[in-house]
Design brief:
It is a single chain. This protein is α+β, with helices and mostly antiparallel strands and 129 residues long. The protein has helices at residues 34-39, 45-59, 109-127; strands at residues 2-3, 9-14, 28-32, 91-92, 98-99. It folds into two domains: 2-65; 91-127, no CATH class. It is built from three helices and five strands; from the N terminus they run E-E-E-H-H-E-E-H. Bound molecules: flavin-adenine dinucleotide (FAD). Flavin-adenine dinucleotide binds at residues 13, 77, 80, 101-102, 107-109, 111-112.
């Protein structure tokens, strides 16, 4: 996975490098920047896919000679990225309601894990008090 400082492209992931997916054929996920997505929210999916692919080729010159594409697609996840991380990793109220999840941090799986882990630590700490 690579996180980028490109105006359109935020994250590039080679999916078959993820754990347990090494038998899959090559496939790439391109995650757009939040501001870019907001500016182009109503554009057709095909247009979005084309723009992000062009961005990928401009950043990684070797990708200009990518093998023939078998399939492309784009999906709009309106609420997938928090615009600003929360001040806290989790919430815990005195009446016992606890909340955790990626949106407290930055929208990736490690953020979800860390949020839950820190809440778990806090709950264990509370239970022994
Ligand atoms: C298409 C896509 C691809 C992604 N790829 C990657 C990736 O490659 N690498 C990476 O690090 N991250 C990736 N992410 C982000 C990652 O999936 C999230 O960061 C992670 O799933 C967040 O975990 P979470 O437990 O906080 O929330 P979620 O996984 O969203 O879990 C929340 C759960 O709560 C349940 N729920 C919601 N409302 C209620 C309710 N009212 N009552 C009961 N249950 C409810 C939901 O059904 C869900 O099971 C991707 C996300 C998307 C959308």
């Amino acid at each position: 996975m690579a996180r980028l400082a490109h105006p359109a492209l935020n994250i590039v992931s080679r999916n078959q490098t993820k754990p347990g997916r090494d038998t899959q054929p090559e496939s790439v996920s391109l995650l757009a920047q939040l501001e870019w997505s907001e500016a182009h929210l109503e554009q057709p999916a095909e247009w979005v896919a084309e723009q992000l692919l062009t961005a990928l080729k401009s950043i990684f010159p070797s990708s200009a000679t990518l093998p023939r594409l078998i399939e492309t697609g784009a999906h709009r996840w309106r609420y997938a990225q928090p615009s600003t991380p929360c001040e806290y990793d989790y919430l815990y109220s005195a009446n016992g309601l606890a909340l955790c999840g990626d949106s407290f941090r930055d929208g990736r799986i490690e953020d979800a894990w860390l949020s839950g882990h820190h809440l778990g630590e806090a709950l264990v700490g509370r239970s022994v008090q």
